[in-house]
Automatic annotation (TrEMBL):
Its cofactor is Mg(2+). The active site is at C334. Belongs to the CobB/CbiA family. Belongs to the CobB/CobQ family. CobQ subfamily. It comes from Devosia salina. The keyword Nucleotide-binding applies. Residues 252-435 form the CobB/CobQ-like glutamine amidotransferase domain. The record marks H433 as: Increases nucleophilicity of active site Cys. This is Hydrogenobyrinate a,c-diamide synthase.
Length: 438
């Protein structure tokens, strides 16, 4: 039975990565978290890059909130401080990578490899063995020697077809000198349940709990967990607390429910550390922000799935108007920006009245995906630096007239984008999700 390991005064960490998307990183990471948790370890889960959904799955498996570590949007000092803070009191920090190990933004920055190098953590390399035999060896060796600062400490094979297939793979991998931690067989119950556009939460997926149990069982049966832990390296100590964006106000009301679910934990932690008083309310439950707040934050989420409920949330709408009239700063991101507009047209073409604080109409009946990192510049009432890092991911579009944009924007390559969002007095929003200051 796996037990606690030695002196845990310094938490240790691993990064789970793969040659490409679809290799099984999520399966392996969730399985590791669930299996190690069953054995009594305290896990600190994290996700590489800008992602609101995967951290919820990781947190569910670990029994502890997951954070984002974004090597494109966050400077190295912030990454190190966040990792050290999150790993405090845990036995193991497990970071799920994104895409392939060296896949990055268009400017070549922000890969899982960049994060592993910044944190000086070893990589557990997940290889989809389907349609591979002896060629798995040069694949692994190539990734292992591509960048000296990125260490592949062990390999996990996924979707192995048979005992004979496994013997061929094991024999080939011996030449790499990299430990093989185990091989997961191809099984129907080890397919991650489908997620609509990748954007739903665990409670909305039929079969998530059985899948998580099957993943934990497979990890326990086929992965050498006793060999895994010694491969982990100490999480580097940080010189101080993570850098954070200032709170939007001293007393902040934050929307939080199924329609407004996209909140980065590092922002909330930073605002609490700065002494802000945070309160939460549910627009879907027709709740208004607290009356004495000086700032209201409407984060992103899925208002387009709840148009009818939001359109009749009269107390919510009246509360926003009252906050505006009292001089509070009101800021909406993506879904929150949509809720600040006059109307939202859902995928069926039905128009739903929103709060009307901004003369903006958003619609998702003509979906077009917009995705990418953004450098953001602003001159607004936001109490943040003039330059910000963020990302954009949405299928809806906005139409507005006569308003100043909230952000000037560049993509990861520095190519100028159309101005983003709108501001009217101290009410403002855009499709951008702000992550940090450079």
């Amino acid at each position: 039975m796996l037990t606690k390991y030695g002196d845990m005064s310094l938490a240790k960490g691993l990064v789970v990565a793969a040659p490409r998307s679809g290799s099984g990183k999520t399966l392996i990471t969730l399985g590791l978290l669930a299996a190690l948790r069953k054995r009594g370890l305290v896990l600190a889960p994290a996700k590489t890059g800008p992602d609101y959904i995967d951290p919820v799955f990781l947190g569910r498996a670990a029994g502890r909130e997951a954070i984002n570590l974004d090597p494109w949007a966050m400077p190295p000092g912030q990454l190190q401080a966040l990792a050290a803070q999150h790993a405090t009191g845990a036995d193991l920090l497990i970071v799920e990578g994104v895409m392939g190990l060296f896949d990055a933004a268009a400017d070549g920055q922000g890969s899982t490899g960049d994060l592993a190098e910044t944190l000086d953590l070893p990589v557990v390399f997940v290889v989809d063995a389907d349609r591979h035999s002896q060629s798995v060896a040069p694949l692994v060796a190539g990734f292992a020697h591509w960048r000296p600062g990125v260490r592949i400490a062990g390999v996990i094979l996924n979707r192995v077809a048979s005992a004979r297939h496994e013997r061929m793979l094991v024999s080939a991998l011996r030449s790499t000198g990299i430990p093989l931690l185990g091989a997961i067989p191809r099984r129907a119950e080890l397919v991650v349940p489908e997620r609509h556009l990748g954007l739903v939460l665990p409670d909305e997926i039929d079969g998530f709990a059985p899948f998580l149990n099957a993943a934990a069982e497979a990890i326990g049966d086929f992965i050498d967990l006793d060999a895994l832990f010694p491969l982990a390296a100490p999480v580097p100590a940080a010189a101080g607390l993570p850098a954070h964006l200032p709170p939007l106000g001293q007393r902040m009301a934050i929307a939080q429910d199924a329609a407004f679910a996209f909140l980065y934990p590092h922002l909330l932690d930073g605002w609490r550390t700065a002494g802000a008083e945070l309160s939460f309310f549910s627009p879907l439950a027709n709740q208004a922000p607290a009356r004495d707040v000086d700032a209201v934050f409407l984060p992103g989420g899925y208002p387009e799935l709840h148009g009818a409920a939001l359109s009749t949330a009269n107390a919510f709408h009246a509360g926003l108007a009252a906050a505006r009239d009292s001089g509070a700063l009101i800021y909406g991101e993506c879904g929150g920006f949509m809720a600040l507009g006059e109307a939202l047209v859902d995928k069926r073409g039905v128009s739903h009245a929103m709060s009307g604080l901004l003369p903006v109409v958003t619609r998702i009946d003509r979906p077009k995906r917009v995705l990418g990192y953004r450098r953001l510049l602003h001159e607004s009432a936001l109490p943040w630096p003039a330059g910000l890092n963020g990302h954009e991911f949405h299928y809806s579009s906005a139409r507005q007239t006569g308003l100043s944009p909230l952000f000037e924007a560049l993509d990861a390559e520095g190519i100028r984008q159309l101005p983003m969002g709108a501001q009217l007095g101290r009410v403002m929003g855009s499709y951008a999700h702000v992550i940090s200051a450079p």
